[in-house]
Amino acid sequence: MWVSSETHEEYCKGGASRETLEIALLETLRALGPGDDKPDRVRAGFLTKVIHVKERMLAREEEITGEWLTEERMKNKHGWGKYLVFC
């Protein structure tokens, strides 16, 4: 098999797992350029890229989003008092 059974199962699951693998393959092919048809180079690049793409997607999911609030909005919107605001 060209990839591990784990990678094969992830692809068969579909959804986000498949999308991650497809992104990794496309990025690998783009990095290698046209005409690079050596299977070993493509495989090694793909397996390395899968790790990088998974880490990038995980970091994106873990990104914390928030909103900027003035002290007045914190008080009105969330009911926070003056002493609960940290400077």
UniProtKB/TrEMBL annotation:
Top-level taxon in the UniProt lineage: Eukaryota
Name of the protein described by the UniProt record: Uncharacterized protein
Species this chain originates from: Symbiodinium natans
Organism taxonomic ancestry: Eukaryota, Sar, Alveolata, Dinophyceae, Suessiales
